[in-house]
Every structure is written in structure tokens, then in C-alpha cells.
Design goal:
heterodimer; A: mainly alpha; B: alpha+beta; four-stranded antiparallel β-sheet; 22 helices; elongated
């Protein structure tokens, strides 16, 4: 079932996945880098689920 | 055969004389074997072994001797206990001269003495016995409710009945275990802690939204069908702000930041108390704030080529920033750490609170900051240098204001709560350097750079033109001036002992603006002017009034007063405290005791009784 885009809370939805990515990256990241990753995560939640 | 050292008992032997001899010899052999045994611990031996030993002594056949030994031991059964375990026969005895069963004495053990001492410490001192470390403080950790439960949180009906458990979103990082789902009892709705992040709800979307369109708080529509690059270009700042706020407000602090870097908290190594002590001792030993890279190499012997170098460097900075004995005094690109015990940088003749108040006008009334009149911030940033004339106050105390021009040149604080930065000011003309402290402005106090007192006094005069330039190292700056042939002048000096100013012969070798040199030739009436207390200097109008009274020309008339040119007043006021020309004139224009004309300022002192009251207030302020 696709995620409802209206339920997205910026800074909350998908944060767990961002943290997981940060753990596995194993080195500090800039705010720009984690923002780009966060957008990518949110996009995957919406678009990929939409495509299924 | 020699007798045992701790002599065993001497039993009485039975049997024939030959049996008595054999029994005694066997007993002696076993006593030798049990030389280090407690007296009641049995020593065991087989007949074959005894026969082999005695036969080797006598040079006879051992086999023939076994029967004789058995008979001799049996004849002395009060001394030897025959033990047959089914496979072999052994004889046992003790150093007491008879056999006794071994007994373990548990009445007096080390474990018992340790846990049940005869004189136990009082209960108040029990912590001393158990541990010397401070117990961990009990803290109430906030409960984090993950996205999973927030999205799944059921809604309770009127009677508390759980009426809805929405299926979880099919995000790939939260795989739903069917078994787990069956076992989990739906809990009552937990209080959802919502960080003040941008909650996006679009009751009336501006754009005709589809299933991939999100309406942002400002009304802009974000379509997730677009590429990541496109989304970032259009809404990157919104995402950055929301993410930064969420990270800051996360009660579990799963992501932590130092400067512009972010990392997962659980991946950050910790520093022990011993580590912190070694780092502090290292910094104090060096005598000045040290960069994190030096701490890593000199204290931890870390090499930038190490796999975990970047991670450990982040950990060092992050952990030290949470310790009260350390203070971050670095800038972007040069992370310097100061430690408790390092000598203070900058003038000690004025308190930091006093300097902060002197420069508070830069923050409270920024329109009086005229440092950008001659140049623009862009030019300063592009050229990476700034030239300015020194005032007497700056020269006397080795201070430079952190005004708009300096803000354009000097680095901004790296951390939000950072108060100071230590800069290394080098003088290429004299091959020397000075540590200067940059004090960032706070809410109602201005900022300044100090620590240049020795350099200014040794090489410059008030009115000198100096140039501060950046280097490749963001914490290192150069300070230069135009050298000239020597010039003699009777220069104003502050006599701290007498609390007054006086003119002293001085030779200087730098380019300077003659109008700003506080010399006897320039303004002779500055001689014997009192050094006002910080409380008196705090108020600009009071300082200006005093300078006008001391230096100004008496103005006769119906309303007696003192008149002084604006240039002279500006010079005289800047002897006592810092002030820009626009600040001076702007403030005095609003004072009823001052009359600001085109080229001069006139001061009308209040009647004597009011003055005495005002002076009294100064004393109280100082106290």
C-alpha cells in the first residue's frame, strides 16, 4: 500500500531510515548530504510505493 | 634416609622384629612423601611401590618383599588403613601416626572473612567499600515513539475500545513481521511527541495535488515524481530547516552535530576520564589552545591515514564540547580547544563585561556603526583584508571592535553557543606573533578582538594605519603597518597609578593620521585629564561632558558652557572609551545638555546639585 503523501511530516517521516543510513556510512556527513539523502528517502517512500 | 623436617609422630610398632622394621621403614617413606602435608591429611601408597623402594635400598627382589610388607602393615593396622578400591590396594596414614578421614574446615574461610567482617563499616560508609566511583545520576529519559507506532497508533472508541489498527505503510526499512503483529497487543494511544517541525497538512491545496504532491507550509507544491536534484534545487532550504529542527528536537539525540557535520550518536567513540585528563594536561603544557589534529597526533598518536581518523576526530570534538573543562575556541577549518588552566588572553585592565558594554552600541544601534563607510563587506571578503586607523582607546588596551567591517573579515562562530575564538596574529615585519581573543557579541553586548596590547604599544601610536589580512590558515592572521622614518612626539599616556593622562616623549616609525594622534601638539588640554572609572565611561554623554569640561573652551553668556570642535571631541572621547563619530553625534543630539552644531559641540553642565547626584550614582554603579 502506498504511503499517503499527506501523512508526511518533514523531519519525522523516514527519519529512522536516515539514521540507519548515517550509521552505515560510518563517517560524519554535512547537512547538505543528509538533506539530499532524506529527500531521496522520502521520494522512495512516495514514488516507489506509488509504482507498486 | 633422613627424617622428615617437621617431625611426625613416633608410633609404637607391633609384630615381629622384622615386621616392625619393615613397618617403620614404610612409615618413614610415607612421611617423607607427606613432608608438606597438613598433619591430618592422609598420605597413600601401594605395597608394590613400597616394596620397590625398599628392595632398591636393600638390593633384593621386590616381588618377594611385597608379602612381607603387607604382613607388616597389617600387623600395624592401628597405624595404616588398608583401602581396597577394587582395582588396587593402598595403605594410608597421616603424620599423626594413625589414619583419619580428611575433613575440610569451613569455619574460617577467606570468603567468609571478606563478606562477613568482624567489624563491618557503618552503613553510611558502604559506598566506600563497594565503589569509589560516583553513581550514575538517575535521569528521566523521554520516551521516543517511532514513525512506526505513530503511524500505526490505534484510535480508541468511546469506551476505550480499540477500533482501528491501520496497516503500516510499506516503507522498506520497516518490515512487518506477521508473527509479531499477532502477538502485539494494541496499546492505548501513546502521547505522540511532535517536534515543532513543519507539519504539512494541506486542507486547501493551492495546486491540484496528485498522490505524489506535497504542499509545503508556504503553499508551494512539491512533486516527489521529480528528481532528487530538482527537489533540492527548489525546496532544499525547507528540507534543511525541517531536518535540522527535527535533529535538534530529537529527545533521544540519535543524530548529533558538531559544527556543520552530523553523525549517528551510537557510532561515536567515548572518551574516558583518563583521556580527558591527558588532553587537558597536554593543552595546558602547550600553553595555548591546540587544534584537534594536534591532540589526535600528539595524545592519541593517530594518523590521518587511519581508517577511523575522521570518525575519531568528530568524536573528539563532539565529546570535548560537552565537557565543562574544555572550551571550543576555533573557527571553521581550524578547530581549536582551550582547557581549564590556560592563561587568559587579552587585557586584564578592563573586565570583559565593561568592554562588552562599551561596544554594545554596535549591536543595539547598528546604524551608528560607520565602519563600512569607506568600503563594502563584499570588498572586504574578496580582498580578505581590512585597513583602519587606531584610536587611543584601541591602542591603549590592544583592542579592536568587532564591527560590521570586522564581521565581514573575521570568521563567524562555528557553534551556536560559541562565545570566543582564539586567533593567531602574526607580524611579518617583526617575525613575532600574538594570541588574540575574538569575543563574539551577545544579546546586548558588543564584540571585540583583544590581546594586541604589546604589539600596539611597541610598534604603533594612536592614529596608526593598520592592515589585518587573512592567511591560508583560518585561525592565523597577519597585522601590518606602513613603516616610516622615526618621528618624535609628546604622546598622551595613561598613568594607571595616578589615574590621569600625561604627555610623554615618544618616537614612532609608522604611518599615522596626525589628527588622530593624541599628542601635546594636537590637544594639549588633554594633560591631567582624569581616567574615568568604567562606570563613568559607560554612558557616552557623561564621558563627552567630562571631556568638554576638561578640554573645551569656556563659553560665556547667559548659559555658561564649554565648546569644542567635533574632531577634538571625537579624539578626546576616544581616549576614554570607544565611540564612532556618528554614535557620538547621534547620542549627544538627543541630550538636552548638549548642542551639536555643524563643526562643534557645546556642553551646558547641569547645576551643581544635579551633578553631585549624578556623581553619586556613578559611585553606586561602580560598587
Amino acid at each position: 500500500m502506498p504511503i499517503d503523501v499527506k501523512s508526511i511530516r518533514l523531519g519525522e517521516t523516514g527519519l529512522e531510515r536516515l539514521i540507519q543510513w548515517l550509521r552505515t556510512s560510518n563517517q560524519p556527513q554535512t547537512l547538505e548530504a543528509i538533506t539530499a539523502k532524506y529527500v531521496e528517502i522520502l521520494r522512495s517512500l512516495v514514488v516507489e510505493e506509488e509504482g507498486r | 634416609m633422613s627424617n622428615p623436617t617437621n617431625a611426625p609422630a613416633q608410633p609404637t610398632w607391633n609384630g615381629s622384629s622384622e615386621q616392625q622394621t619393615l613397618a617403620e621403614r614404610a612409615f618413614n617413606v610415607m612421611m617423607l612423601q607427606s613432608a608438606f602435608f597438613p598433619e591430618n591429611v592422609p598420605v597413600r601408597q601401594t605395597v608394590a611401590n613400597l616394596a620397590a623402594f625398599i628392595a632398591s635400598q636393600d638390593g633384593v627382589d621386590a616381588t618377594a618383599l611385597e608379602a612381607s610388607i603387607s604382613a607388616a602393615l597389617e600387623a600395624n593396622s592401628q597405624i595404616f588403613r588398608r583401602i581396597d578400591d577394587g582395582e588396587r590396594v593402598v595403605y594410608a596414614t597421616t603424620r599423626l601416626g594413625y589414619y583419619t578421614e580428611p575433613q575440610i574446615d569451613t569455619r574460617h574461610t577467606f570468603a567468609k572473612r571478606l563478606h562477613e567482617p568482624e567489624n563491618p563499616l557503618p552503613i553510611d560508609d558502604l559506598s566506600v567499600v563497594i565503589t569509589r566511583t560516583r553513581p550514575a545520576l538517575t535521569t528521566i529519559e523521554p520516551v521516543f515513539i517511532s514513525d512506526y507506532w505513530q503511524q500505526r497508533s490505534p484510535t480508541t472508541g468511546e469506551e476505550g475500545e480499540i477500533i482501528n489498527v491501520a496497516p503500516i505503510s510499506t516503507s522498506s526499512d520497516v518490515e512487518l513481521d506477521e508473527t509479531f503483529e499477532d502477538e502485539v497487543e494494541p496499546v492505548a494511544v501513546a502521547p505522540v511527541v511532535v517536534a515543532p517541525a513543519a507539519v504539512v497538512e494541506a486542507p486547501t491545496p493551492v495546486v491540484a495535488a496528485n498522490s505524489t504532491t506535497l504542499v509545503l507550509p508556504g503553499g508551494a507544491a512539491l512533486d516527489f515524481a521529480q528528481s532528487v536534484e530538482h527537489i533540492l534545487a527548489a525546496h532544499g532550504s525547507t528540507f534543511q530547516a525541517a531536518l535540522s529542527a527535527a535533529i535538534d528536537n530529537d529527545p533521544l539525540r540519535r543524530i548529533v552535530a558538531f559544527g556543520d557535520e552530523y553523525f549517528a550518536e551510537e557510532n561515536i567513540p567515548t572518551l574516558s576520564k583518563g583521556d580527558l585528563r591527558r588532553i587537558r594536561e597536554y593543552i595546558v603544557e602547550q600553553g595555548e589552545p591546540m587544534p584537534d589534529t594536534s591532540i589526535l597526533s600528539d595524545v592519541y598518536y593517530r594518523n590521518p591515514r587511519d581508517n577511523d581518523y575522521v570518525t575519531f576526530r568528530f568524536a573528539l570534538n563532539y565529546r570535548l564540547n560537552r565537557e565543562k573543562d574544555f572550551e571550543f575556541v576555533g573557527v571553521q577549518g581550524a578547530r581549536l580547544w582551550s582547557a581549564k588552566g590556560l592563561p587568559a588572553v587579552g587585557t586584564k585592565r578592563l573586565k570583559t563585561s565593561e568592554l562588552g558594554q562599551f561596544y554594545s552600541f554596535l549591536e543595539e544601534t547598528p546604524h551608528f556603526d560607520d565602519s563600512l563607510k569607506q568600503t563594502s563587506p563584499d570588498d572586504i571578503k574578496q580582498n580578505r583584508q581590512l585597513s583602519r586607523f587606531l584610536s587611543f582607546f584601541e591602542w591603549e588596551y590592544g583592542v579592536l571592535p568587532y564591527d560590521a567591517a570586522m564581521k565581514a573579515l573575521l570568521p563567524q562562530p562555528l557553534l551556536p553557543e560559541q562565545r570566543t575564538a582564539i586567533l593567531r596574529i602574526e607580524s611579518p615585519q617583526h617575525y613575532s606573533f600574538y594570541l588574540a581573543e575574538l569575543r563574539y557579541p551577545t544579546a546586548n553586548r558588543g564584540g571585540w578582538l583583544h590581546g594586541l596590547e604589546d604589539f600596539f604599544k611597541e610598534h604603533l601610536v594612536p592614529g596608526a594605519l593598520i592592515t589585518l589580512s587573512a592567511t591560508d590558515d583560518p585561525s592565523v592572521w597577519t597585522l601590518q603597518y606602513e613603516e616610516t622614518s622615526g618621528a618624535d612626539v609628546k604622546l598622551l599616556q595613561q598613568d594607571d597609578k595616578k589615574g590621569r593622562y600625561a604627555f610623554v616623549k615618544h618616537t614612532f616609525y609608522c604611518d599615522a593620521d596626525n589628527d588622530l594622534i593624541a599628542s601635546q601638539e594636537r590637544l594639549p588640554r588633554l594633560k591631567n585629564m582624569k581616567v574615568l572609572t568604567p562606570g563613568e565611561r559607560r554612558r557616552l554623554a557623561t564621558t563627552a561632558g567630562y571631556v568638554l569640561e576638561q578640554v573645551g573652551q569656556p563659553r560665556p553668556g547667559d548659559r555658561a558652557g564649554f565648546e569644542l570642535s567635533i574632531d577634538d571631541l571625537f579624539l578626546g572621547v576616544n581616549v576614554q572609551r570607544p565611540a564612532t563619530r556618528s554614535y557620538l553625534l547621534g547620542e549627544l543630539a538627543e541630550e538636552q545638555d548638549f548642542l551639536v552644531e555643524e563643526a562643534a559641540v557645546i556642553y551646558f553642565p547641569p547645576p551643581e546639585d544635579e551633578t553631585s547626584v549624578e556623581n553619586k550614582n556613578f559611585v553606586e554603579d561602580d560598587e
